């Protein structure tokens, strides 16, 4: 006679451990993937299927990995893997951005540390060091990206400094030159006096900055309005050094201006009693305060439209600044700040430049590339606008040109690399026109034709394109792709000849872009042109033109390894800052050379903050190293963190948030472990067809059908956060807290031949297939570990599978409504039982025999079902009447109540632990358990 009943229970059994030991496990799986060349197998698996190409926005090869890298690459991997599991052909080619100022700045710092002026180093030697530095960082980053579980063509990556890439970038410039979009022009551009180069808006960050501001006097010398005779127009500027470049004053036609006389001033005021000043009436009080004017006499009010045909003298007139300063109406003259008059320095502001050019005013050259006044600038020649700002102000004040000085804190442009303030400076540069070939209109049309995730990001990019000026693509630096253009010494016009462009770019492809600086490339003009008639452009291209051209040399490449790529890409995916960066530059290059965007969809993720919502910074020491997280918890935990956040918004990360990610991961792992344990010894012979299954199993199949629809829709929508929440809730709410809880009794105690147990195991087999494949893009290592525990074979990887095909016949809305009612009732019963357990009236729910009160239609849902089994009790009575007022209920579930203080009658079965009348002293186990033991003893497997 069996007395040790524990040995007769079919407890779950699996080698899949509760603790994953991910840091060690993942490295072993990575080694196996490398051994079987899994990335290559993934690329080759569906050669004839519809493709999904995510073009990689290149990270910059100038530093170690940070959490932003991890977020970005994991999201890209999710996009690729979900599309792959959905039956698409994927081929992910990772890439790196290698040119430009960040790397150049690193090498310059090395020279400065040795006391060497970078400008004294031969440009070829300098470029060679930049290339060497970038190559080293690419190799470091490449290995670490793979540690995140990112699938990709890591042996055939791209970089913008490859010879073929440099050649194609030059070809794109050639296309722009030939179609007339590229032109040489003179405009104010954002300029770094430290780095001595123009910067694009995408290379600029805005910081809080304290500027010294000044109010200047411009005496009226000509006017058609008698009210303005012998008056002084007052302007205000946050950049007093630009007063030397003043050529006009702007006013607003609809602004009310006041003419007044200071009558009383403070002792230290620069205002003069009796002078007639003109400012906007709405700004008078603020001006009086700034100028320390205590009392005034208002003389007249006039509209801006009455100011036309008025001319002033420069504040330094008589000291080398003898020219007329006309007053010109302009829409940008407002009453937001200052005096209502805008000082116009066309060399130092784009609006100023446009206004002066439109009105035939000359644009002066006052500031050299190092921020020093040219020698021809009267009084201030040789002074540095940044270092000598106070000295310049002092001179202006002594000459009487200043009426007031103050300070203002405001956002100001800084170089994101050197962290120094920038200026606007008029220089000769190369531009891509937004209008010549209708580039702006084409780009706006393509934005409207592109899918944006989230949709709001469309508006952001559209607004930028609507208002952007022509694109300045030239940089006065050393490391990058040169602008491969020759200009006529006689006319200054660029040489537009496709044959010459082809010679240059073919030379770049064979020898690299360095040849532009190492050889006499003017020889490429022969025999068609005389090299003596042309000058070689020495500027290099904006790094954003480099990265904006990557689609041309990757997606359209003739490289055999990339033959299955296609243009345009299905998806570009980057952080929200790339609306003004890579998304923007790629759009402009695609539209200007091919007439459309190089992408069909854009997914944007937010920035990273710490768990308190603060921006990560070195000063706060609140950064998180992704490799440290991996070494402690594993890459899968980091991947769970990514999908557990709404990554379309700014994200938070920190120790406590990562702890939640560990908890999320453990719940998923425990679900997989329970399923694997329940399938111990499972074989196809146990399979039960859905029509023969109990209602509960058919309900689970219905839920699988519903989850599958959501997974596939999330894959199409790139909504990985919803995908994860759906899987997580299914595992924790539908399975662990409900289905597994109910069916564990059947799994443990039913006879192996039990139809109910076989149905449950059949569903568990389906759950295993679904969960491992659904989780494969998220928990890439854990899903592989689980899959391999039941699927051996050298090349049997879950990542070579597809999402399971779920029969539509599993859909059963009637059954879903029925089980929704049952689960609602169960919530009340479970709450009542928990209360009894908390009050220590019962230790286990199996001691209880609750009476449950509910409406008759809810009670009907239990027809043919064992309510006690669903409630995990030994007995249960269902009553279709209102329960007593003392019965347990939940406010949100009216009409359902439970009395859980009734104990089950009988004795405890020593095998299944249910309390049943059929259990007696002579037979300590119930009839079901007796049959199970009999079957176990008398069945030979």
TrEMBL record:
E.C. numbers: 6.1.1.5
Localization of this protein: Cytoplasm
Pfam family membership, one: tRNA-synt_1
Catalysed reaction, written as an equation: tRNA(Ile) + L-isoleucine + ATP = L-isoleucyl-tRNA(Ile) + AMP + diphosphate
Chain residues that bind ATP: 618
Entry's family note: Belongs to the class-I aminoacyl-tRNA synthetase family. IleS type 1 subfamily.
Stated name of the protein: Isoleucine--tRNA ligase
Organism: Candidatus Endolissoclinum faulkneri L5
């Amino acid at each position: 006679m069996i007395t040790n009943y524990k040995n007769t229970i079919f407890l779950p059994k699996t080698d899949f451990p509760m603790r994953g030991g991910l840091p060690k496990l993942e490295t072993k799986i990575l080694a196996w993937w490398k051994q079987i060349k899994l990335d290559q197998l993934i690329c080759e698996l569906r050669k004839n299927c519809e493709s999904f190409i995510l073009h990689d926005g290149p990270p910059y090869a100038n530093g170690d990995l940070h959490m932003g890298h991890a977020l970005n690459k994991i999201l890209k991997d999710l996009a690729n893997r979900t599309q792959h599991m959905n039956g698409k052909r994927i081929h992910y080619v990772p890439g790196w951005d290698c040119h430009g100022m960040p790397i150049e700045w690193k090498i310059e710092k090395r020279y400065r540390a040795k006391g060497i002026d970078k400008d004294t180093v031969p440009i070829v030697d300098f470029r060679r060091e930049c290339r060497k530095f970038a190559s080293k960082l690419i190799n470091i980053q490449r290995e670490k990206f793979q540690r995140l579980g990112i699938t990709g063509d890591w042996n055939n990556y791209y970089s913008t400094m490859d010879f073929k890439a440099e050649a194609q970038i030059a070809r794109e410039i050639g296309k722009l030159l030939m179609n007339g979009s590229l032109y040489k022009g003179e405009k104010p551009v954002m300029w770094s006096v430290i780095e001595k180069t123009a910067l694009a808006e995408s290379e600029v960050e805005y910081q809080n900055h304290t500027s010294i501001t000044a109010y200047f006097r411009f005496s009226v010398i000509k006017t058609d309005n008698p009210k303005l005779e012998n008056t002084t127009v007052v302007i205000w500027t946050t950049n007093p050094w630009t007063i030397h470049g003043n050529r006009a004053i702007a006013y607003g036609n609809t602004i009310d201006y006041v003419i007044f006389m200071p009558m009383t001033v403070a002792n230290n005021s620069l205002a003069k009693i009796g002078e007639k000043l003109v400012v906007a009436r709405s700004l008078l009080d603020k001006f009086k305060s700034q100028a320390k004017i205590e009392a005034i006499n208002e003389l007249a009010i006039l509209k801006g439209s009455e100011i036309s045909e008025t001319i002033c003298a420069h504040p330094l007139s008589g000291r080398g600044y003898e020219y007329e300063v006309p007053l010109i109406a302009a829409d940008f003259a407002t009453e937001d700040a200052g005096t209502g008059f805008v000082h116009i320095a066309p060399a130092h502001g784009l609006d100023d430049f446009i206004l002066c050019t439109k009105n035939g005013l000359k644009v002066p050259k006052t500031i050299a590339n190092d921020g020093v006044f040219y020698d021809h600038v009267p009084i201030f020649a040789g002074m540095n606008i940044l270092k000598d700002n106070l000295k310049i102000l002092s001179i202006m004040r002594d000459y009487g040109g200043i009426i007031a000085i103050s300070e203002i804190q405001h956002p100001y442009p800084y170089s994101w690399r050197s962290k120094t303030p920038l200026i606007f400076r008029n220089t000769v540069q190369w531009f891509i026109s937004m209008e010549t070939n209708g580039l702006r209109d084409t780009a706006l049309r393509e934005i409207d034709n592109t899918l944006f995730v989230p949709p709001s990001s469309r508006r952001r990019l559209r607004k930028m394109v609507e208002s952007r000026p022509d694109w300045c693509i030239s940089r006065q630096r050393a490391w990058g792709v040169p602008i491969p253009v020759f200009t006529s010494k006689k006319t200054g016009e660029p040489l537009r000849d496709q044959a010459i462009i082809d010679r240059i770019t073919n030379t770049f492809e064979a020898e690299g872009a360095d040849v532009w600086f190492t050889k006499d490339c003017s020889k490429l003009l022969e025999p068609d042109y005389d090299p003596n008639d042309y000058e070689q452009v020495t500027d290099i291209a904006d790094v954003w033109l480099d990265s904006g051209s990557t689609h041309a040399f990757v997606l359209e490449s003739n490289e055999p390894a990339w033959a299955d790529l296609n243009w345009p890409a299905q998806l570009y995916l980057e952080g929200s800052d790339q609306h003004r960066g890579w998304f923007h530059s790629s759009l402009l290059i695609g539209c200007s050379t091919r007439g459309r965007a190089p992408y069909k969809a854009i997914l944007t993720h937010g920035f990273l903050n710490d768990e308190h919502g603060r921006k990560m910074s070195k000063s706060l020491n609140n950064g998180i190293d992704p490799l440290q997280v991996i070494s402690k918890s594993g890459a899968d935990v980091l991947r769970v963190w990514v999908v557990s956040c709404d990554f379309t918004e700014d994200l938070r990360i920190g120790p406590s948030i990562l702890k939640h990610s560990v908890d999320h991961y453990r719940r998923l792992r425990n679900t997989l472990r329970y399923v694997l344990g329940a399938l111990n010894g499972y074989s196809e012979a146990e399979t039960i067809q859905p029509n023969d299954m109990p209602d509960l199993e058919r309900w689970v199949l219905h839920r699988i059908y519903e989850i599958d629809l959501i997974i596939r829709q999330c894959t199409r929508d790139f909504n990985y956060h919803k995908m994860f929440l759906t899987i997580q809730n299914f595992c924790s709410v539908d399975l662990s807290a409900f289905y597994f809880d109910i069916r564990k009794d059947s799994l443990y105690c039913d006879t192996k031949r039990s139809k109910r147990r076989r149905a449950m195991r059949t569903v568990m087999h389906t759950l295993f297939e679904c969960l491992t494949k659904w989780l494969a893009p998220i928990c890439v290592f854990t899903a592989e570990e689980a899959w391999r525990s039941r699927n051996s074979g050298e090349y049997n990887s879950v990542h070579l599978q597809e999402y399971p095909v779920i029969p539509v016949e599993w859909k059963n809305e009637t059954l879903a409504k029925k089980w929704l009612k049952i689960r609602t009732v169960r919530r009340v019963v479970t709450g009542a039982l928990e209360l009894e357990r908390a009050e220590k009236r019962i230790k286990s729910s199996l001691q209880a025999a609750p009476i449950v009160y509910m409406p008759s239609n809810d009670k009907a849902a239990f027809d043919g079902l064992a309510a006690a089994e669903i409630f995990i009790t030994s007995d249960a009575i269902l009553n279709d009447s209102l329960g007593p007022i003392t019965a347990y209920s939940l406010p949100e579930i009216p009409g359902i109540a439970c009395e859980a203080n009734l104990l089950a009658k009988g004795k405890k079965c020593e095998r299944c632990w249910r309390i049943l009348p059929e259990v007696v002293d002579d037979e300590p186990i119930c009839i079901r358990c007796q049959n199970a033991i009999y079957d176990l003893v008398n069945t030979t497997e």
